[in-house]
Amino acid sequence: MHMADALISPAVGGAMWAATAGLIAYSSRKLALEADDKKIPLMGVTAAFVFAAQMINFTIPATGSSGHLGGGLILAVLLGPHAAFLAMASVLTVQALFFADGGLLALGCNIFNLGFFSCFIAYPLIFKPLAAATPTRGRIIGGSLLAAIVGLQLGAFGVVLETLLSGITALPFSTFVLLMQPIHLAIGIVEGLATAAVVLFVWQARPEIVAAAAQAKPVDALSQRKVLIGLAVATVLTGAILSWFASGQPDGLEWSMFKTSGHEELDAPAAGVHESLAGVQEKTALLPDYGFPASEEAGEAEEAEAWPAVNAGTSVAGLVGSLLTLTLAALIALALRRRRAVVVAGSR
Amino acid sequence: MGALDSRFFDLGAMDRLARQDTPLHRLDGRAKLLATLAFLVTVVSFDRYELSALIPFVVFPVALCLGGNVPGRWLWRKILLAAPFAVLIGMFNPLIDRQPLLTIGWWQVSGGWISFASILLRFALTVAAALALAAVTGFNNVCTALQRLGVPRVFVVQLLFLHRYLFVLVEETMRLVRARALRSFGRGTGLRAFGSLTGHLLLRTLDRAQRVHQAMSCRGFSGAMPALRPARFGGREIVFVLGWTSLFVALRCVNVSRWLGAAVLELWS
Asked: Domain locations in chain A?
């Protein structure tokens, strides 16, 4: 459920970056206050463990398919919420930079969806009270399952909200939710089982490891409330400021369309879409001279504004120009490459 | 498993690319990071039906690849590997959004197809830029740049540790998985075996963390990683960032593709 840059808007990406940056700063401060420099290599190596453990598959009971460990919850069980959040953030950063799993701009969203919910909600509110205080076999299995499911459901819902707020996809809310939540229910069950299996093994072999993370000092309520308020303010501010910029942009686009097309014909005939379509079908010319009306219904007003008026001539010009630009870029790249090859050959 | 093997093998390839010595590699990491962020924000800020205006943005990843000597074919393969999610979500646009937007002769293209193509193009551009950034900067320099831009030290050290031990643990895990495969003849992949296998790996990892900590304490580790190459944000870096950013702003305001196309059509007729 890594989100890609291509599906988010700057406002959403920026707001989630602000929220995530705040959480990272907060977690880092908490760790610095703990002043336990033993924890630093522990976090690094455990994050690498989560990466590596994803290579170990197991057969999902009663089905033919296989699953693997996801990460957020087991990190929280081993390290406690703050260190686990930083470790998860580092895993996602490396995935974004090296594997292109989720983009750089979407990194804030991804860290929030996959890190925040499992480390700061699912672990302290579900796993810890259920399983960490007085662990038994059943409690560990139940706590892991429930925490993993809740964490992933919240994360998947975050993906849905962020994607829809960005407005790049045409999926309606209900379809998207019905698509995402059941899939992530299944993933959550698998994740919970895998986490339970590992935690059970560690608890039986070295019980003190599971106990140590759970006994970390609880966060005092006041500072947490301050952080939450600060985060909310930062998120809303960034989103608002960036979306103000974004809504200012289409005008510039409109202006440049007018300017570059050089036509005044973008003023559309006052007919409905279907009428102009019927008119279009009669024309077989390469550059039919028509445009869509700007808006006809209130519901479609927003869409029509996003793409104010389409002139087929302008579109063809865009198409031809795009192909030309691509060809030009490719030619320049090829020429430069050949030159470099010559230089390298000559220098040897 | 083969796919994962090659993915991690590729991680080494990225590091090899980053160890080259070109003017672009010598540039301070902060400059490359800032220019890439400006690029990403500009590309993503376009309207969802925009296609032609996005194309000139190819210039940035192409320039990074050429300047940093990064093979284009390798980059393209990585982009394809990462594509499924964007394709999956974007695929619904042609099904839902059927309002025709573009007509070429008798051929009508619906808004859904245009926005789908736009998503794919954005995806290719943003992923290419991020990968090219990593390939011409290297992970350690990205981390140094992050720290100098104000990211907390604990998090930066965490990233460095993760990157260092990723290779070690991946190799160990590959040995574990191979050993299980050789002994179990396709069975032995149940949850219990998984728990013990992964649990053992975890215990070994924790012991390793303790040894690492002792070794580092002996060598005077105090929570910070010293950097070898002194970072300097000089004139070249300023020119790099300002040059690219102003180009992005210009491309955001002027649709070069359409302008070029209009000019050519004018000449032609």
From this structure: 5-245, 258-347
CA A219 vs CA A24, A125, A131, A213, A230: distances in Å: 15, 13, 19, 13, 16
Question: For B202-218, how does the pLDDT look when each residue is reduced to its tens digit (9 = 90+)?
Answer: 888 888 888 888 888 88
Read off the pLDDT of residues A49-105 as tens digits, 9 standing for 90 and up: 888 887 787 777 666 666 777 778 888 888 888 889 999 999 888 888 877 777 888
Q: Do B50 and A253 touch (CB under 8 A)?
A: yes
Asked if A296 and A277 count as a contact pair (C-beta separation under 8 A), the reply is no
Question: Are B75 and B65 in contact, with CB atoms under 8 Å apart?
Answer: yes
Collapse the DSSP code of A209 into the 3-class scheme (helix H, G, I; strand E, B; otherwise coil) and give the result. helix
Collect all residues of chain A within an 8 Å Cβ-Cβ radius of residue B168.
48
Q: Is the pLDDT of residue A281 over 60?
A: no
Q: What percent of chain A is helix, strand and coil (3-state, nearest 5)?
A: 75, 0, 25
Pairing type for strands B107-110 and A58-59 reads unpaired
Q: Which of B52, B41, B67 is nearest to A326 (CA)?
A: B52
**In the 8-state DSSP scheme, what is residue A319?**
H
Cross-strand pairs, B104 = B107
- Chain A residues whose CB is inside 8 A of the B162 CB are 44, 47-48, 51, 87, 90-91, 94
Residue type, A281: Q
For chain A, the straight-line distance linking the first and the last C-alpha, in angstroms and rounded, comes to 48
pLDDT tens for each residue of B120-156: 888 889 889 988 998 898 888 888 888 888 888 888 8
Q: Return d(Cα B206, Cα A47) in angstroms, integer.
A: 11
Test mutation, B52, B133, B177, B201, chain A, max A CBs within 10 A: B52
Residue labelled with tokens 């890609």: A4
- Is B13 at the interface with chain A, CB within 8 A? no
Whole-model pTM: value is 0.74
Structure tokens at B168: 């070690």
For Cα atoms A236, A242, A248, give the angle at the middle one, nearest 5 degrees. Answer: 135
Q: Are B30 and B149 in contact (CB under 8 A)?
A: yes
Whether B5 has a pLDDT exceeding 60, the answer reads: no
Task: Report the distance separating Cα B187 and Cα A245, nearest Å.
Answer: 57
Are A4 and B126 contacting, i.e. CB atoms less than 8 angstroms apart?
yes
Q: Which CATH class is domain A5-245?
A: mainly alpha
Answer whether A100 sits within 8 Å of B213, measured CB to CB: no
CA distance B150 to A300: 44
What type of residue sits at position B222? S
How far apart (Å, rounded) are the C-alpha atoms in residues B77 and B3?
13
Unique residue bearing structure tokens 């293209």: B109
For the cut 50, the answer to whether the pLDDT of residue B222 exceeds it is: yes
| Residue position matching structure tokens 């994607």 | A163
Do A194 and A67 contact (CB within 8 A), yes or no?
yes
For chain A, state the CA radius of gyration. 26
